[in-house]
């Protein structure tokens, strides 16, 4: 585990701990007098004397004491958990580094060989618990990550869908627009253009020639939305009957069964615009008059 | 046996005594360790024979008891004793107890009101002793402390530099060093160094931390190239924070040498809080009577337009 991890975890843990404890023991909070009380005792000489009494002789080797003094660079804010723990950590790290250098200089074996097994401070079962907790945390984090990703993907998909719809609407509008334009042009030129011009006008800007939609159903009136034949094609029988069935269907759509019949004879915009049955151009019609 | 112990204590306090030289030479597997002694002969051979008694008062809360047990597991040179009856937790009985167990120092966890933990650190029998208030206790059992280390390996003690500022911090440092440092070659200690204690003064409190040291290495006596840079620490616990209250000259008593000028006992704090909350009803009553008195003393002037629309 890296340093940042542990530290962060520590910090978070502390916060959790404090929030959980704050209600139960609010008095635990460190309250202190704002100014030092006057009658407090400070016997400097007595302290120093006592210190010299109990302290070990000066020439004691360092290996007996194993104590290291580490400079604290700056004042630490006590209430900032992270900063405080970081300062302790750096103190420990710096101290250990110095101590290990000293030990190494002495040439004493001081690191535990990997095959040295002995009783540890925490039991194996306890460490097992610690490990399982770590794993659980990791799993939780991963799950959260996954959920977040899924959410993100959903959002993006929605956006893309909206964009697509917009584009489609725009295209449709453009097409309609172009048709209108073409019509206006034709009106302005007074329908006098020959068949060739008309045909030219029929082509759209994007080069697609006007086509009847292929979805058109045979025998069904153009305005009929009730389904007509399509309704009938629902259940398909056996294979052998296939051809017969098709034939039958066609006839039924043509002569009855399925869809409203009344609409068949009504004009729609499609039929009015359908000029196929007219003589196009002025060739044949005008010949007689000329004579 | 007892005689020897006494003499060793004398050595600790006054190592310039002659008796030190009479000490039995150290034994090794192959015989007497004469050579070494000869070499160090001119300077005194110092042998740390610290023995620590760890006890607690009765009715200690489980959390604090666990803290005590953690301390016991960290210090191989300590002896754990039974809980002490709270009536008897006066200095003399404790001193007797320490004497009885042949110890030279004592850690006494005193729990009061099932809330406050006081820690006594004392050198016996000649003092000094310190009383701390313990705050912010986290025991080793907490699962977020993920480190582990050998039981009984000697800790490296690190102190922050502000321990050398004032005499009372100095004396505390010496005490902590003697009590928390495991004696070299103690028979229960293990010959490796894999954890570090942090004692740091922040905000006039001594903060304690215990870290496991993990260094990448192959051999026992050499750190890999750049290993010291790659060294990481994992916290093992426990954590606590000591607020020194008083330093006494003797062990568990004697003249007061230092008194923390900023200290307020948790009892006072609680009382203050209670007082703040109390008296709500009394205040209300008082306000009511005051209002009444005020109204009586300043009567309203008779309203001249009162019966104007009355007809």
UniProtKB/TrEMBL annotation, chain A:
Region of interest: Disordered: 1-38, 164-291
Keyword Nucleus among UniProt keywords: yes
Record's GO cellular component terms: nuclear periphery; nucleolus; preribosome, large subunit precursor
GO biological process, one term: ribosomal large subunit biogenesis
Compositional bias segments (type: Basic and acidic residues): 29-38, 164-180
Bias (Polar residues): 266-285
Family statement: Belongs to the EBP2 family.
Keywords attached to this entry: Coiled coil, Nucleus, Ribosome biogenesis
Protein localization: Nucleus, Nucleolus
Protein name: Probable rRNA-processing protein EBP2 homolog
The organism's taxonomic lineage, starting at the top: Eukaryota, Viridiplantae, Streptophyta, Embryophyta, Tracheophyta
Biased composition (Acidic residues): 1-13
Record has S-adenosyl-L-methionine as a keyword: no
Broad class of where this protein is predominantly found: nucleus
TrEMBL record, chain B:
GO annotation, biological process: ribosomal large subunit assembly; rRNA processing
Subcellular localization(s) per the UniProt record: Nucleus, Nucleolus
Ranges of Basic and acidic residues composition bias in the record: 8-21
Keyword list, A-Z: Nucleus, Ribosome biogenesis
Origin superkingdom: Eukaryota
SMART domains, A to Z: Brix
Cellular component, GO, one term: nucleolus
Region of interest called Disordered, as start-end residue ranges on this chain: 1-21
SUPFAM superfamilies reported for this sequence: Class II aaRS ABD-related
InterPro entries found in the cross-reference section: Brix, BRX1
GO MF assignments: RNA binding; rRNA binding
All copies of domain Brix, residue ranges: 50-253
Broad class of where this protein is predominantly found: nucleus
PANTHER family: RIBOSOME BIOGENESIS PROTEIN BRIX, RIBOSOME BIOGENESIS PROTEIN BRX1 HOMOLOG
Family that this chain belongs to: Belongs to the BRX1 family.
Protein name: Ribosome biogenesis protein BRX1-like
Source species of the chain: Nelumbo nucifera (Sacred lotus)
Gene: LOC104604893
């Amino acid at each position: 585990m890296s340093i940042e991890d542990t530290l962060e975890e520590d910090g978070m843990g502390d916060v959790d701990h404090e929030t959980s404890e704050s209600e139960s023991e609010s008095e635990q909070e460190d309250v202190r007098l704002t100014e030092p009380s006057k009658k407090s005792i400070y016997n400097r000489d007595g302290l120093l004397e006592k210190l010299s009494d109990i302290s070990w002789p000066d020439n004691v080797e360092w290996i007996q004491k194993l104590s290291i003094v580490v400079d604290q660079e700056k004042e630490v804010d006590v209430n900032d958990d992270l900063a405080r723990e970081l300062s302790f950590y750096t103190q420990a790290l710096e101290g250990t580094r110095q101590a290990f250098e000293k030990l190494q200089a002495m040439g004493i074996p001081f690191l535990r060989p990997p095959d040295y097994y002995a009783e540890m401070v925490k039991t194996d079962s306890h460490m097992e618990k610690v490990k399982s907790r770590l794993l659980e945390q990791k799993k939780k984090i991963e799950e959260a990550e996954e959920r977040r990703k899924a959410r993100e993907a959903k959002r993006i998909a929605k956006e893309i869908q909206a964009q697509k719809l917009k584009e489609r609407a725009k295209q449709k509008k453009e097409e309609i627009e172009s048709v209108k334009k073409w019509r206006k042009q034709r009106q302005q030129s007074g329908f006098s253009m020959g068949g060739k011009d008309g045909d030219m006008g029929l082509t759209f800007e994007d080069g697609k020639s006007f086509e009847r939609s292929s979805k058109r159903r045979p025998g069904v009136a153009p305005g009929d939305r009730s389904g007509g034949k399509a309704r009938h094609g629902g259940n398909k029988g056996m294979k052998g009957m296939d051809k017969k069935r098709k034939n039958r269907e066609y006839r039924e759509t043509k002569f009855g069964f399925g869809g409203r019949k009344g609409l068949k004879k009504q004009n729609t915009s499609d039929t009015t615009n359908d000029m196929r049955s007219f003589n196009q151009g002025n060739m044949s019609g005008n010949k007689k008059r000329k004579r | 046996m007892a005689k020897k112990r006494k003499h060793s204590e004398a050595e600790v306090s006054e190592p310039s005594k002659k008796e030190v030289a009479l000490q039995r030479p150290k034994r090794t597997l192959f015989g007497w360790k004469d050579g070494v002694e000869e070499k160090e002969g001119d300077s005194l051979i110092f042998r740390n024979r610290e023995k620590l008694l760890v006890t607690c008062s009765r009715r200690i809360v489980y959390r604090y008891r666990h803290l005590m047990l953690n301390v016991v597991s960290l210090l191989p040179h300590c002896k754990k004793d039974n809980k002490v009856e709270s009536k008897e937790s006066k200095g003399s009985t404790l001193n007797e107890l320490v004497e009885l167990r042949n110890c030279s120092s004592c850690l006494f966890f005193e729990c009061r009101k099932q809330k406050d933990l006081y820690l006594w650190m004392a050198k016996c029998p000649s003092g000094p002793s310190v009383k701390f208030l313990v705050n912010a206790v986290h025991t080793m059992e907490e699962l977020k402390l993920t480190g582990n280390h050998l039981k009984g390996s000697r800790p490296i003690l690190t102190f922050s530099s502000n321990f050398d500022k004032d005499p009372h911090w100095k004396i505390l440092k010496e005490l902590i060093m003697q009590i928390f440092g495991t004696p070299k070659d103690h028979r229960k200690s293990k010959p490796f160094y894999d954890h570090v204690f942090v004692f740091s003064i922040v905000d006039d409190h001594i903060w304690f931390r215990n870290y496991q040291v993990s260094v990448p290495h192959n051999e026992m006596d050499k750190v890999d190239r750049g290993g010291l840079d790659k060294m990481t620490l994992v916290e093992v616990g426990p954590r606590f924070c000591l607020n020194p209250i008083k330093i006494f000259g003797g062990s568990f008593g004697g003249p007061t040498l230092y008194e923390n000028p900023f200290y307020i006992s948790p009892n006072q704090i609680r009382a203050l809080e209670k007082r703040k909350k109390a008296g709500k009803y009394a205040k209300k009553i008082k306000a009511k009577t005051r209002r009444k008195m005020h109204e009586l003393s300043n009567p309203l002037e008779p309203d001249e337009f009162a019966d104007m629309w009355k007809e």
